[in-house]
Structure formats: C-alpha cells, structure tokens
Amino acid sequence: MPRLALLTWIWLSFAVVHSIPYAYAIEERQTWVWFDRYHRAFPNLKIDGHCDNTQVLILQRAWEESKLLAKAQTGNVSGYDYDLVHKTWLGQDWNRTGKPLLAYYINHRTRSIAKNFEQLKRLYDGIIAGTQWIYWWCHDPGAHCQANKKDYSTIAESWIDKSSGIREIYHTVWCPLFFEQETLENQITRTKNNIADQVILDNFELNSAVTMYHETFHYDNLVGYPSIKDTVFYADQCYQLAKVIGTEKAYVNADSYTVDALAIYIQQKFQLSSPPLPRFVIEGTKPPDLKKWE
C-alpha cells in the first residue's frame, strides 16, 4: 500500500542524542511526540512515549520472534535445501548471479536478493550505521491506520524520513490491529501435535512476528534494495506471484521475503520432510487470482 508523505522534522540537540528523548513533530497537526531510547530490540531504536507497558511488551515479543525468522532465513543449516524454498517464494531466478550470458536485469535481481538477506542479517545482529535510526509509533497522528479506499485494514505502516539532512529515520506505526494479533508461539503451540496443520503455511502467516518481519523490508537501503513494495500479500498470493510471474516481481515484494522466512522456520521447527505450502496447494483446490493491492 502507498506510503503517506508527511512534513516532518526532528527537534533535538545532537550533543545529547544518546541520553535525551526526541520530540517528533507533524507540521500540519502540531503534534509533539516524545520518543524514548529502547535497548532491547533493534539498535538505534526509539519508541513513542504514547506506548503503554503492555504495548511495549507486545513489541518486544514480536521482535524476539521475528528474529527467529531472520535466523532461519539467513542461516546456514547443513543439508537444508534453501534453494527449494527460495525458488518457491522468490522465483526460479532468485540465484542466477555469476552467469555472464544472462541479461543484466536477471543478475541484478539476484544481487539484490543477496544484499537484502545480508542487510537483514546485519540489522538483526545489531549492526546499523550511526546515522540510521528506527522509530516505532503506538499512536497514529498521521492517520496511517485508517482503512484505505478499498477498505483494507492496516496493521502497520512504515516510511522513511530524510528531512533531517544527516539522519535516515525509519518509522513504523503499529496500528491497533497489530496489538490484537496472536504470537507466533501461540500458533506453534496450537499445531505442535497436528502434522496436517503444520504443513499449511496459512496457519502461521497472521501474527505479530510476521507483521514486524514484513515491515523491516520496507526500510529502504537499511534492508530493502531496491525499494520493496506490497504487490501481493499472504502465502497463497505470494506462491502464485513467484510461480506465474517469477523473480521479476517477487524480489521486490515484502511478503514474498516474509513467507519465505516463515516456511524455512516452520519446516525446521517441526522437522518436516518438506517445506509448508499454501492451503490451496496442499488441498489441491483452485489457486487464487493475482490481485494488485494499492
């Protein structure tokens, strides 16, 4: 969905950036928000002063679980067939670099995917430039959480602010629906004794960890390069995107990376003989039509 453009600035003293909360202002509304430094998730992270203790705990738990997805996707488990999963969700051309006779754009996509994985791993490992900051919002003065023109509800929204000149500030507003989502652990626990449920990826795609992981791919240059969009959502549509259109679209679609990580994590968690797949594939029903979300 489109990112909303806001006129913003940071009011701060650069001499004390490590000790004093920042005030963030939205010019049109004159709403001042204090952000407190938070040390238990991403580096260089500040959290909206409107977040209550319960919301902070939910964010912390979501980050911890999303880190499990990052470790699964960027890890190197001996004998695991990463190629099979990546081809399923990112298309057949996800890893075609180093072949000089291929068209430039095919090699470019492969390099971009590799760079996205590398930058994602660095971020979750706590490596970030001193000029890059992440701000998490719990209230929504910019009206990001309102239903869009097609009445799709927003769970979270991210954007980048470069107006300060020196810093790149990556913002995510966590909408009320985010704080109502299940945890990934709850879904794991519910399906732990049911292999029939474990092999259906749809059973794990709606939770706070998956939402948070998805949003990190919208942090342009910090993680996503080139800019990662929302072309389609969820496992069924991402499966069709990779199969029908291929890497050309999948490598710049946030949920394609997200369900890729989720499939790896679930297979390794339950020690499944093959990666989980969308329900329509498992049950042999009609695939969904690809839809353009705007």
TrEMBL record:
Signal peptide position in this chain? 1-19
Keyword annotations for this protein, in alphabetical order, are: Hydrolase, Metalloprotease, Protease, Signal
Keyword Protease assigned: yes
* MF (Gene Ontology): metallopeptidase activity
Picking any one GO biological process from the record gives: proteolysis
The record's SUPFAM superfamilies line, in alphabetical order, gives:
Metalloproteases ('zincins'), catalytic domain (SSF55486)
Q: Know the name of this protein?
A: Metalloproteases (Zincins), catalytic
Source organism per entry reads: Glarea lozoyensis (strain ATCC 20868 / MF5171)
